[in-house]
Amino acid sequence: MPITDVTIVRRCADCSVEIGTITVKKDNMRLMTNDLNWCESCGTETREVRDIAQREETVTAEQASYPGNPPVEDVTAAEFRRRRGAGIAV
Ligand SMILES: [Zn+2]
Question: How far is the CA of 4 from the centre of ligand 1 (A)?
C-alpha cells in the first residue's frame, strides 16, 4: 500500500521548538514556507521550518520514577516537640 500521507513537523526557525504537526498528502507536501507563526518560546512570530516526521518517533517518556519528597532525616527535634505538645512522655 503506497504511502500517501506524510506527517510534517513544524518547528520554530529560531529556537526549533515544535509548533505542531500536520498531515498532508505526499503530493501536496510543502516544506518551504514563509508563513509566520506564533512561537510561545520566542514570544514572537517567527518563521517555521518543516521536517518530515520520523517513522520511529522518539517518545520522550516522562520519567515516572521521580523521587518523591526526600525523606526528612532530621525529624528528631520536630518530632520531640510534637510528642511533647501532644502530652506524650518522651
Ligand atoms: Zn521560537
Answer: 30
Asked whether residue 79 is assigned to any structural domain, the reply reads: no
Residue 47 CA to ligand 1 center (angstroms) comes to 9
C-alpha distances out from residue 58 to 14, 37, 42, 81, Å: 22, 24, 24, 51
Using DSSP's 3-state secondary structure scheme, residue 79 falls into helix
Distance 20 CA to ligand 1 centre (A): 12
The whole model's pTM is what?
0.52
Instruction: Give yes or no for a contact between 6 and 24, defined as CB atoms under 8 angstroms apart.
Output: yes
49 occurs within a structural domain = yes
For residue 69, the model assigns a pLDDT of: 58
From the CA atom positions of the chain, what is the Rg in Å?
A: 27
Q: In whole angstroms, what is the distance from residue 10 CA to residue 31 CA? A: 9
In a domain, 67, yes or no: no
